[in-house]
Amino acid sequence: MGNNQTETNLTKHTANMPAVSVRDRSIEDLTQAIHSPGDEEGVLNRTRPVLKLYYDPQMSDEDRAAMLDEFGRALRDVPFWAVSQAFDRWVKSRGRRPSPGEIMELANSELSRYSTELENRRQRAEMAAQKPKNKLAPEDQRVKAEAAQSILVEAGFDLKRAARLSLNRMATTHDEREQDKPARPLHWTKTADPDGPEMKALHKEREGYKVHPKVKSEGKEA
User: Fold this and answer.
1) pLDDT tens-digit profile of 46-56?
2) The pTM is what?
3) Measured on CA atoms in the order 66, 68, 72, 78, is the torsion positive or negative?
4) pLDDT, greater one: 25 or 207
5) Is 184 helix (H, G, I), strand (E, B) or coil?
6) Per mean pLDDT, which range of 59-63, 95-99, 103-107, 130-134 is the poorest?
7) DSSP string, 50-69
8) Fewest CB atoms less than 10 Å from the CB: which of 81, 91, 117, 140?
């Protein structure tokens, strides 16, 4: 008796659900709606006023009762809220009496919206679980990279120079270090004309220093 009362309350709740978007419903609400029970009595009560809209005076009372029973048997296992919404859709868009199969098709369409939303959420949850936990969104990655670059620049670290250094292998021996040293420029005396005025002046200066070193020294101190 308790279970029947619970099913009755659940049927009434789901049959009169507010017009909330499927995407705005919780997973609990979606699951409850899909698995909510059918209601044969509710189906019959919903079918009668709809069939009256398409009254056929030539149909006998026995035929009407038999037709009503067909709706009850066909739709009693379908969640009642879906059946009720199926009848609503039919009345709004059709101009003839429906068959049980046509109402069943519309009810399944309503259920499909809920099951599809549940499946989409399950797939999104699986994709989120497979992503690396520490992976940042593209925007966060850009902000983090810019912050790191700013810190290095403030510390006087030349990023372009670092990029160039990363292309060069570090020397591991004395010979390699000596080889990596830049070549010293030649002294101008190595390339000057031996008979030129510069070299003659240099020789004269050197000869004078050798002959009178003290005189030159005293002259500088004066």
Assistant:
1) 999 999 999 88
2) 0.51
3) positive
4) 25
5) coil
6) 130-134
7) HHHHT--TTS-HHHHHHHHH
8) 140
pLDDT at 122 over 80: yes
Q: What is the pLDDT of residue 127?
A: 87
- Retrieve residue 156's tokens: 């006087």
Contact between 32 and 10 (Cβ < 8 Å): yes
Structure tokens of 175?
Answer: 């010979």
Residue 9 near residue 37 (C-beta atoms within 8 A) = no
User: What count of other Cβ atoms lies within 10 Å of the Cβ of residue 13?
Assistant: 13
Give the pLDDT confidence of 141-173 residue by residue, as tens digits. 666 666 666 665 665 555 565 555 455 555 556
- CB count in 10 Å sphere of residue 197: 9
CB 33 within 8 A of CB 14: yes
Q: Please state, in angstroms and rounded to a whole number, the distance separating the CA atoms of residues 75 and 80.
A: 8
Amino acid at 211: V
For tokens 């593209």, the residue is 138
Tell me the C-alpha distance between 212 and 39, whole Å.
129
8 Å CB contact between 152 and 68 = no
